[in-house]
Amino acid sequence: MQNKLYFCTNTKMSKGLTESLSYLKDLQTLLSDLPQKDIELAVMLPFTALYPARQICLKSNILLGAQNVCQETDFSFTGEISAPMLKELNLDCVMIGHSERRRKAGETDSMINQKVLFALSENLTVFLGISETASEKQYMISDEVLRIQLKRSLYGIRAEQVPLLRILYEPAWAIGKDSSCIPPDYVGKKHNTIRSCLCELFGSDTGSSIPVIYGGSVSPSNACRLIDQPNVDGLGIGRSAWDAFTFNCLIRNVQEHVNQSTSKGDKPYAENFK
Ligand code: 13P
Q1: Is 88 a catalytic residue?
Q2: Does the beta carbon of 24 lie inside 6 Å of ligand 1?
Q3: Across-strand partners of 125?
Q4: H or E element: which one contains 118?
Q5: Is residue 234 within a helix (H) or strand (E), and if so which, with residue range?
Q6: For domain 5-273, which architecture applies?
Q7: Cβ contact 247:12 at 8 Å
Q8: Structural domain spans, the chain
């Protein structure tokens, strides 16, 4: 059970430098009144926008992050960006193991584990992507796949680093689809599996404290049904967040919905949502 709602967006390659900066400025203005104690919002921009983006949101309540990081710190990786290089930009967070990087860029659990360890050692908050494919879902091995990805990707993390961890469950089959194709109860079941695996890994108190965020065709029409699911602590949003005004409305609707649900006792959120 978390005491916050978590939202993040990954703009992928949808925006270059100019568009990323104007998007960030709009988001910052629209969301400037959101209390950080209730809501965590992270925006993952492309590498080319990160330095000027940091200057824009130096004092903002938005966490700024990269969409990837190299699994090495050695200089001989032409074209890559290391965790210390991200930290030098004073970034807050980084997304690691997104489904598109696992499948289209061929990233393995062991590469992802190294990325996670390097990012944590630089005190970057890590949004760890885990996901199953459509065929793994069809073979009914989603739970096994998610557990293996979690156990391999999080290997070697120290207890004191856990507060920097966010789990982002974004199944490959759910990304870029129509929001009506996403069964909320399936999402809830997978989040229960993820939670139980985290508790196995870190013990029940620490495992329960790690935010688990759902992503994949989240939209204004399904966001509230998804946040109602057990162990869904937040939403990771692609297309429906890439317009700052739509994203702002979505966040506020979900927050309002959660406030109302908790006053009815529907889902046990923490104190500040009661
Ligand atoms: P969509 O919300 O566009 O399906 O993208 C999800 C995603 O990949 C976010 O990281």
Answers
A1: no
A2: no
A3: 93
A4: helix 109-121
A5: strand 234-237
A6: Alpha-Beta Barrel (3.20)
A7: no
A8: 5-273
